[in-house]
Amino acid sequence: MSSQAQPISHATEGTAASVSPVTDCPRDRLRVTQPTALTAVNVHKSYHSGSVVVPVLRGVDVAIGEGEFAAIVGQSGSGKSTLLHLLGTLDKPDEGEIWIGQDCVNTMKPLERDRLRNRDIGLIFQFYHLLPELTALENVMVPRMIGNGLFAWLRNRRHYEKRAKSLLEKVGLGHRLQHRPNQMSGGEMQRAAIARALITKPQLLLADEPTGNLDRQNGEEVIRALMTLRDEESLTIVMVTHDDEIAQSANRIIRLTEGRVAA
Ligand code: ADP
Ligand code: MG
Atom 23, ligand 1: which residue's CA is nearest? Predict the structure, then answer.
């Protein structure tokens, strides 16, 4: 396990060779010296609005060590969500590479990328997207209901239920198993969403403004739940937040400015 920032070097930044198709993923460009959970190498991303190109990320280099709890901070519009989506393989960089552990995402076929995302990455957002007609326990099991055929679901249901209960207990919701979302506070709903993101036992948890919709006390409870899960589930966590106080809870702060990671 490493909780240190990893040095990265990439030989081709700024040269014509670095403007490579997104499928390019030369392994020798990755020069991390210790195992990393997640690495972005020279990542660029722009959005196009008509004929206007809006550059957002302009050469992001970052390596997250296994077991780290890293916060990505920066002004509104600085590209935090854009970077998180790239790290979570929800979108592709225009240039540069994303690595999940030792696997380079760029060269993966879409199906392979989807499988990796489903297996290795849990995602949470500012809004919880719980299903209102289901209890907390059922909501947490939803990814398992969807990800299995009917027979596999029926065969494994008890096992999944046990895991869902255990996760809800770890996030402090052992007394809310049968509650529906409208019977829960915002912080409780977010903690249920976190448990749901972990039902498939991913190694990485990516969170985009998980406390953005919560008051201070509920926000702190969510952060406490994340810290417990990082330790008990051996997770690596990357959390985007615009709240500097919330970011202080992380063991590392990564600041985005002008499309890059600030030194
Ligand atoms: P942050 O999360 O730091 O607030 P974002 O990553 O959401 O920033 O957005 C960075 C910039 O990219 C903003 O100027 C935003 O308006 C723009 N942007 C984000 N998503 C899109 C999109 N799908 N199409 C066009 N512009 C976008
Ligand atoms: Mg954002």
Answer: 47
